[in-house]
UniProtKB/TrEMBL annotation:
Transmembrane residue ranges: 280-300, 312-333, 354-376, 388-406, 545-564, 584-605, 906-929, 935-955
Recorded topology in the membrane: Multi-pass membrane protein
Organism of derivation: Kalanchoe fedtschenkoi (Lavender scallops)
Enzyme class at the top of the EC tree: translocase
Pfam families the UniProt entry points to: E1-E2_ATPase, HMA, Hydrolase
Catalysed transformations (reactions): Cu(+)(in) + ATP + H2O = Cu(+)(out) + ADP + phosphate + H(+)
Similarity-based family: Belongs to the cation transport ATPase (P-type) (TC 3.A.3) family. Type IB subfamily.
CDD domains for the chain: HMA (cd00371), P-type_ATPase_Cu-like (cd02094)
EC code(s) of this entry: 7.2.2.8
Protein name per the record: P-type Cu(+) transporter
Any Gene Ontology CC annotation: membrane
Highest taxon of source: Eukaryota
């Protein structure tokens, strides 16, 4: 379960983009003076409002600067400028010349756009698109996903733009549509009414740009649309709609509403499926008669005898009909193969279209030659292959149709996630006393941060937020995979997309739009599906030489059968009665061309990764791409943090003792003063317990003394001065570093506490230990079973903790971990990980805190507990949303199953080719008389792709190997 923030305020999203930086992605907006961009950066040295005025004055006088906003509180500057008139470097220099230091300033502006790619058939297609994109000036990185049919491009907007990028894809012979561009994270589109002229557009644009929090506005008055990028902390879509409606001088009224573009992915997927279905049916309309006229009716005497009637010379009715019916299939239905081949050859590559075009054209034009020769000759008798061409195209289109239907199901899990958010929500307005003033049903997309939303029993939670009133149980299984409903009370978090089961609750929205956990899960899974797994390199390398090798093999096959047949090296009886050596060799050559298909090879990895990452997301395991999947399956050692990972992370003080004459009230005051500034869970437990003790011994309203020179000692504790007294609160290591001696009484107490698997927090005053707290952090109920299950999988376990040795060993013994490293500082954890890696172990690290992030980054696979910090989540390869240790097993097991499935897919893909090509080439023909007709070879080729996709789809049935029932 995602953790609770008792303060009721969430400033950071649960899952931040791992590629994000502190600078907003610049957004372009068209206005009267050209392209304006916005850039945000940090400025050090701002101490008051006059400093902000100085920066604004320094920048405001520069040519090309449109507006400057400086926040003294945040230490940030937002500058809107015209790139044609001034560079970002000049902006930076102007701020530094004014005497301030600039931080987090982008050396180069990089934007990201995503494109939907149409027409990809195999890995060579995706590689060709990547090469075409990387050749565009300004494109820094391009990744094309075959199964996802998307491209993600990082580019410099000062050098190129999206139009040039789309043109590059189209020039390579593929279709491209823009899915998203720039920072779509906080972008809204409005539909405008009563917009009659460019002047109206300028009025609305000016009004919207004047709002705080609006970074860019783009108005399309012809389409009556406006696109706005905004800061959700400052403004929201409802305020933008209100501003657009109230723009102008009052004589003109506008109407604005939220515009939701149609789901292009669904419509395009449906259109592609219908296109292949229609082409298959059209092909069948002509191909089936060809098949009947060539393969069926001639065998049914006397019903097929009319086909042998001669039209002119030796040209028969059957041959003429086959020619007539085959031609539309070859040139109308098969046009797509010609187009694909042309573009592939133009970019100096080859794909499936090239093989199909070569095979069908060889069969068709040879058949045309036979028909013309029969037309002109009185004695010529020859066999045409019109059915080969027609049936080949028919079976390939059937295969593509079944393939796109199956591929559509690989993203079912992701589609289900995106549909979890409800369409509407009830917005509540409260008065100062918390009484409801009004209740309005609004679109979920209009919810703004800090809105109060009413959620009735059975309704879905529309956004992430904190319960402020009411109690209920919420089913979070669709997000976390946890089947048991979670109790919610005021102060608890709720996640958008989950279902409120019984009570009515009021929720304060904390994350909206793209910041919600659900949106970030979807974004993370989409990015993971786009990334290539290292195991795919095999397919990429094979695909580069695959088609040329197949063409060469087909030519060799034709020569091997044709030349010996002409010179009589094999018996004439091998050649069918209605064929000669040339025709037999041609059929073998065409069969070799079409039986080998690179499509299945290219689909083997991405389809499995798509299904696995989507399935993992629905089970509460977020896997950041194929690379993380591949590394996870190799893990032989799992290293666990203790606090918050193996334990619940909610320490409780079970006892407090004094070793001096200092009154208990003063002892509590000193502990509170020192620990109140620490974020460590143990520190919070100490403060909470000390406050309760202080209430028993003294007045709760008395002010806590202020601490000065406060210092955190990582892995040891804290120290500072309270008045003239030096106070230290921490473990034995902290006391030793300050030279504080330990009496026998203290040592005995510490030993007793640690043997009970508890942590002893010592309080020192002026070089003497005056008391101690015994803190216990219960072990998670599933920890023991998870460790035992990992051992049964052949995986060793290690515990790394900053806690003392005795407590760590006691916890390790309780859960079954034999190897324990205690009293380890954060960087020391990373060093321990590296030591294990040097022994040849693939290491996974499971942690939850900021102090775990170096170790998470150093490990082969970092697994972050979902309730942990943003830093830990960002550093990890896998995020366990539910914070349950059983998902460590799930992540490793799912990765093993996926890699196993990918290997099986390669067996299917390569197996068809390895077995099919020799049979197609006629290896069995001399011994058994078995040969593979070209149309049947085409069916086998189609079957290879379908089998690979269906094999990947079997991962949809994945079940967790370990499920712990909680009391």
């Amino acid at each position: 379960m995602i953790g609770v923030n008792g303060n009721g305020e969430l400033k950071e999203p649960l899952l931040r983009n791992s590629g994000s930086i502190a600078v907003s992605v610049p957004e372009a907006v068209q206005n009267g003076d050209g392209k304006v961009r916005s850039i945000t950066f940090k400025v050090n040295g701002i101490s008051c409002a006059s400093c902000a005025v100085s920066i604004e004055s320094a920048l405001g006088g520069l040519n090309g600067i449109r507006s400057v906003m400086v926040s003294p509180l945040l230490g940030q500057a937002v500058v809107k400028y015209v790139p044609e008139l001034i560079s970002t470097e000049a902006i930076k220099e102007a701020v530094e010349d004014a005497g301030f230091e600039v931080e987090d300033f982008p050396e180069q502006e990089i934007e990201v756009c995503r494109l939907r790619i149409k027409g990809m058939a195999c890995t060579s297609c995706s590689e060709s698109i990547e090469r075409a994109l990387l050749m565009v000036d300004g494109v820094k990185k391009a990744v094309v996903g075959l199964a996802l049919e998307e491209a993600k491009i990082h580019f410099d907007p000062s050098v190129t733009d999206i139009k040039h990028i789309v043109s590059a894809v189209e020039d390579a012979g593929f279709g491209a549509d823009v899915i998203s561009s720039g920072n779509d994270a906080n972008k809204v589109q409005l539909k405008l009414e009563d917009l009659n002229s460019p002047e109206d557009a300028m009025i609305i644009q000016s009004s919207l740009e004047a709002l705080d929090g609006v970074s860019s506005v783009e108005v399309d008055w012809k389409e009556n649309k406006v696109t706005i990028c905004y800061e959700p902390d400052l403004i929201g879509p409802r305020s933008l709609i209100k501003c657009a409606e109230e723009a102008g001088d009052g004589s003109k009224k506008y109407s604005a509403s939220l515009y939701n573009p149609p789901n292009r992915r669904e419509s395009e997927s449906l259109a592609e499926t219908q296109m292949y279905r229609d082409q298959f049916l059209l092909s069948a309309l002509f191909s089936v008669p060809v098949f009947l006229f060539s393969m069926v009716l001639p065998m049914l005497h006397p019903y097929g005898d009319w086909l042998d009637i001669k039209v002119y010379n030796m040209l028969t009715v059957g041959m003429l009909l086959r020619w007539i019916f085959c031609t539309p299939v070859q040139f109308i239905v098969g046009r797509r193969f010609y187009s694909g081949s042309y573009h592939a050859l133009r970019r100096k590559s080859a794909n499936m279209d090239v093989l199909v075009a070569l095979g069908t054209n060889a069969a068709y034009w040879y058949s045309v030659y036979i028909a013309i020769k029969a037309l002109l000759s009185h004695t010529f008798v020859g066999q045409d292959f019109f059915e080969t061409s027609a049936m080949l195209i028919l079976f390939i289109l059937l295969g593509k149709y079944l393939e796109v239907v199956a591929k559509g199901k690989t993203s079912d899990a992701l589609a289900k996630l995106t549909e979890l958010t409800p369409d509407t929500a009830y917005l509540i307005t409260l008065d100062k006393d918390g009484n409801t003033i009004s209740e309005t049903e609004i679109s979920t997309q209009l919810i703004q941060r800090n809105d109060i939303i009413k959620i009735v029993p059975g309704a879905k939670v529309p956004v992430d937020g904190i319960v402020i009133d009411g109690q209920s149980h919420v089913n979070e299984s669709m997000i976390t995979g946890e089947a048991k409903p979670i109790a919610k009370k005021p102060g608890d978090k709720v996640i958008g997309g989950t279902v409120n089961e019984n009570g009515c609750i009021l929720v304060k929205a904390t994350h909206v739009g793209s910041e919600t956990a659900l949106s970030q899960i979807v974004q993370l899974v989409e990015s993971a599906q786009l990334a290539r797994a290292p195991v795919q390199k095999l397919a990429d390398q094979i695909s580069k030489v695959f088609v040329p090798i197949v063409v060469l093999a087909a030519v060799i096959t034709w020569l091997v059968w044709f030349v010996p047949g002409e010179v009589g090296l094999y018996p004439r009886s091998w050649i069918p009665e209605d064929m000669d050596a040339f025709e037999l060799a041609l059929q073998f050559g065409i069969s070799v061309l079409v039986v080998a298909c690179p499509c299945a090879l290219g689909l083997a990895t991405p389809t499995a990764v798509m299904v696995a990452t989507g399935k993992g997301a629905t089970q509460g395991v977020l896997i950041k791409g194929g690379n993380a999947l591949e590394k996870a399956h190799k893990v032989k050692t799992v290293v666990f943090d203790k606090t918050g990972t193996l334990t619940l992370g909610k320490p409780n003080v079970v006892s407090a003792v004094l070793f001096s004459t200092v009154p208990m009230e003063e002892f509590c005051d000193l502990a509170i003063a020192a620990e109140v500034n620490s974020e460590h869970p143990i520190a919070k437990a100490v403060v909470e317990h000390a406050r309760r003790l202080r209430t028993n011994y003294g007045s709760e309203t008395e002010q806590i003394p202020e601490i000065k020179d406060f210092e955190v000692h990582p892995g040891a504790g804290v120290s500072g001065k309270v008045g003239k007294n030096v106070v230290m609160v921490g473990n034995k290591r902290l006391m030793r570093s300050f030279g504080v001696p330990e009496s026998d009484e203290v040592e005995r107490y510490v030993t007793e506490v640690e043997q009970l698997a508890r942590t002893c927090v010592l309080v020192g005053l002026n070089g003497k230990i005056i008391g101690a707290f015994a803190v216990t952090d219960p072990v998670k109920p599933e920890a023991g079973r998870v460790i035992a299950y990992l051992h049964s999988m052949g995986i060793s376990t290690v515990m790394l903790t900053g806690d003392n040795w005795a407590t760590a060993e006691a916890i390790g013994k309780e859960v079954g971990i034999g190897k324990v490293f205690a009293e380890t500082v954060p960087l020391g954890k990373a060093d321990k990980i590296k030591e294990l890696q040097l022994k040849g172990m693939a290491v996974a690290m499971v942690g939850d805190g900021i102090n775990d992030s170096p170790a998470l980054a150093a490990a082969d696979v970092g697994m972050a507990i979902g309730a942990g910090t943003d830093v830990a989540i960002e550093a990890a390869d896998i995020v366990l949303i539910k914070s349950s240790l059983e998902d460590v097993v799930t992540a490793i097991d799912l990765s093993r199953k996926t890699i196993s499935r990918i290997r099986l897919n390669y067996v299917w893909a390569l197996g068809y080719n390895i077995l099919g090509m020799p049979i197609a080439a006629g290896v069995l023909f001399p011994f058994t008389g078995i040969r593979l007709p070209p149309w049947l070879a085409g069916a086998c080729m189609a079957a290879s792709s379908i089998s690979v996709v269906c094999s990947s789809l079997l991962l949809q049935s994945y079940k967790k190997p370990l499920h712990v029932e909680y009391a």
